[in-house]
Every structure is written in C-alpha cells, then in structure tokens.
C-alpha cells in the first residue's frame, strides 16, 4: 500500500512539474542573483531588450597570442537564453589563428563557417579516435559535449564562424592554459605530460604560469 502511495505521489509530482514547465514561456535571467546548476532565477520585469543581442556583428580582437577571438552570447551576456538550452558565439581567426584544444563541459557545439576555411576536429573518449576536416564556407561541424576539440584558420586570409551550443552557459576549459597558466609545480606537469623542464618553464612563461 505504501509503495503504491509513493509511486502515485511521484507521478503526480512529475506531472505537476511538467505542467508548470509547459505554461512558463521563458525565464529571463536575473543576473544580479547567483547562478546555480539549474540556471539563474527569473527576473521580474522583462523587456524586448532581454531577447535581443547585437554584439555578434562586430569582429573580435585577434591581437593576442592565439590570433583569435570568441565573442560569446551566453546567458551572462544574453539573459533571454536562460533556461532555453541554447546560446551562440562568434569566432574570428586572423591569419595563423587557432583555438587550442579545449572542452565545453556543459554543452555540445555546432560550428558553421561563414568566411574563409577552418581546420576543425575533436577527439573521442573511445580509443582517442580523431575526427577532423578542413571546412569551407557553408560547412557545418558538430562537437559532442565534453570532448576535446580545436579550430585552426587554414585560409590565406581571415576566417569567421558562428558556433551554437546546447546550453545557455557551455563552460570552457582550454587545455594549454589549464596546464601552463597556473601555479601547478613544473615537476608535476613534467610527470603528467612527459615534457622536459625547459619546455614546461618556457610554456609557463609564455602563458603566464608560475614555475
């Protein structure tokens, strides 16, 4: 009897939650409140400006070590995507530009090339299988959630792409910076990467880490 009551209660709870989700059109992020695994709480006063983002029409600044720029329209820049399971960003690559190996722990990614050509790929977690291709204008490639992937400008001029994500805040961890832009002791990095001391210290110096 008790198990029947519990099952009935759980089913009723799930149906109630589903009904609530269906009648709630949106939940624009209240960026003054703390974020959580469930997203930001809803702000009380919503305007059309919450559903519009104009920052992707301007090329990003590629004057940096990777000669690339990512302009995000994630929930912190675009509060209207809160709770919708989507976001977008612009990718600009100067000549020789590269987005190093990185992961998005909270979303899968779809990339569409709109100018130039980009060599892009990812590495699976099964036998470290590599999938990469030189993409031209109009080509699309998907990068599954959490997998290491990269983009390299393979054109003689600048390249540009737009990337969409299956979450409002996909997260980002760039492998090079994770290894060499911190205060993890050099001897530990040498042990886990098989690089010698000179190489590790050189990379730390370039990327701002401490030996």
Taken in chain order, the helices and strands follow as: HEEEEEEEEEEHHH
- Span of the ends, CA to CA: 65 Å
Largest sheet: 5 strands, antiparallel
**Weakly predicted, low-confidence segments:** 5-22
Determine the structural class based on helices, strands and strand pairing: alpha+beta
Percent range for β-strand residues: 25-35%
Q: Roughly what percent helix?
A: 10-25%
What is the averaged pLDDT score? 90
Q: Work out the radius of gyration.
A: 21 Å
- What is the spatial order of strands in the main beta sheet? 1-2-9-4-7
Q: Total number of β-strand segments?
A: 10
Shape: globular
| SS summary, helix count | 4
GO molecular function: manganese ion binding
Subcellular location: Secreted, Extracellular space, Apoplast
Family: Belongs to the germin family.
Keywords: Apoplast, Disulfide bond, Glycoprotein, Manganese, Metal-binding, Receptor, Secreted, Signal
